[in-house]
From TrEMBL:
Gene Ontology BP annotations: ATP synthesis coupled electron transport
Hydrolase keyword on record: no
Molecular function in Gene Ontology: 4 iron, 4 sulfur cluster binding; metal ion binding; NADH dehydrogenase (ubiquinone) activity; NADH dehydrogenase activity
Lineage: Bacteria, Pseudomonadati, Planctomycetota, Planctomycetia, Planctomycetia incertae sedis
Annotated source species: Engelhardtia mirabilis
Protein name (record): Formate dehydrogenase
GO-annotated cellular components: membrane
Cofactor: [2Fe-2S] cluster
Keyword tags: 4Fe-4S, Iron, Iron-sulfur, Metal-binding, Oxidoreductase, Repeat
InterPro entries xref list: 2Fe-2S_ferredoxin-like_sf (IPR036010), 2Fe-2S_ferredoxin-type (IPR001041), 4Fe4S_Fe-S-bd (IPR017896), 4Fe4S_Fe_S_CS (IPR017900), Mopterin_OxRdtase (IPR006656), Mopterin_OxRdtase_4Fe-4S_dom (IPR006963), MopterinOxRdtase_cofactor_BS (IPR027467), NADH_UbQ_OxRdtase_75kDa_su_CS (IPR000283)
Length: 354
């Protein structure tokens, strides 16, 4: 069996594993800003560099394949100085993104936490900055604050590699580098499907969930509850974010077996109806052509009489039910059970079947 020695510990590895993957398996704290498990390793930020015995210079652990007999050191004094310099360079280019800020729409703040770790405040290499924000983008879902961008390209790569949309790309070079859409337009005019994958992978808060940002100044603590998206039959795992028992955001579960961190626009952003003021709070029945409030007893009685008269006049196949993707799974189950058991037919559907 092939083995690699990391920080004095010999460990077996499988063909195709990188030094970074093996190091993480050993719970070594190797930092990175451009790495995402779901994407092909890119090696752009170089923060994951390690010392490799026999190599002239430090190597990027995320793109260097493990080989039998390698001897690696992940946290020597020289390596930490190297990482410190890299962080100082990154933070000096976009110091705004290196501040820990709770008002960023629950976006990741990997850069901010690493800046604290390496005591990088942007003062070491003061100079020109890159990235131009798009406050003119009026879409109500995704913040595009490129003053925080560090050009790690994770958003571009997740859009291409995971979604296959290729809605965003990189324009220009050097300090003129800019994350953009085709013809530098708005997201709604591009091929963007508003899946939110770019928000979830961004390490700086340059991309954020605008809807969840609105809840940042509300009182109470954020709570996260694992659930299943009801919109279709795929069964995507989601983490529902709440404050004082009110939904303020939805995030895809990165370990969800059906979606692995992916969601569609409905699953990601279509949650505000839950607490909508327009939702019914009691049954309504039609009287003199108008819907008026009624008791549950009256509503049930009217519904029963209606079903009975239809079946007597037209037969059981005249009854057809459509369940809603906005209802709980238990409600969908009850609807199909009601039709199949109560009327002996399979005339049931769901508006969001996949």
């Amino acid at each position: 069996m092939s083995t690699i020695t990391i920080d004095g510990q010999s460990v077996p590895f499988e063909d195709g594993e990188t030094i970074y993957e093996v190091s993480r398996r050993l719970e070594r704290d190797v930092p990175t800003l451009c790495y995402d498990d779901r994407l092909e390793a890119f090696g752009a930020c170089r923060l994951c560099v390690v010392e490799l015995e026999g190599a002239r210079n430090p190597v990027a652990s995320c793109t260097t394949m493990a080989a039998d007999g390698m001897v690696v050191r992940t946290a020597t004094e020289a390596i930490e100085r190297h990482r410190k310099t890299l962080m100082d360079l990154v933070v000096s280019e976009n110091p705004k993104g290196a501040r820990i800020d709770p008002l960023r729409g629950l976006a990741s703040q990997e850069l901010a936490h690493l800046a604290v770790r390496y005591e990088s405040d942007g003062s070491r290499f003061v100079g020109k900055q890159s990235g131009t924000s798009r406050p003119d983008d009026t879409n109500p879902m995704i913040l595009r604050d490129y003053d925080n961008c560090i050009s790690c390209y994770r958003c571009v790569r997740v859009c291409a590699e995971r979604e296959g949309d290729y809605a965003i790309s990189v324009a220009n070079r050097g300090f003129e580098t800019q994350i953009t859409t085709e013809f530098a337009g708005l997201l709604e005019d591009s091929d963007c499907t508003f899946c939110g994958q770019c928000v979830q992978t961004c390490p700086t808060g340059a991309l954020g969930d605008l809807r969840s940002m609105e809840a940042q100044d509300q009182p109470g603590e954020f709570e996260k509850t694992r659930s299943i998206c009801p919109y279709c039959g795929v069964g995507c795992s989601v983490d529902i974010l709440t404050k004082n028992e009110k939904i303020v955001g939805v995030q895809p579960a990165m370990d969800g077996p059906a979606n692995l961190g992916a969601l569609c626009v409905k699953g990601q952003f279509g949650w505000d109806w839950v607490d909508s003021d327009e939702r019914l709070t009691q049954p309504l029945v039609r009287k003199d052509g108008k819907l008026v409030p009624a008791s549950w007893e009256e509503a049930w009685e009217r519904a029963a009489k209606g079903f009975k008269s239809v079946v007597e006049k037209h037969g059981r196949h005249a009854v057809y039910a459509v369940a809603s993707g906005r209802a709980p799974h238990e409600s969908a189950y009850s609807v199909q059970k009601f039709v199949r058991y109560g009327f002996g037919t399979n005339y049931v559907d769901n508006c969001s079947r996949a």
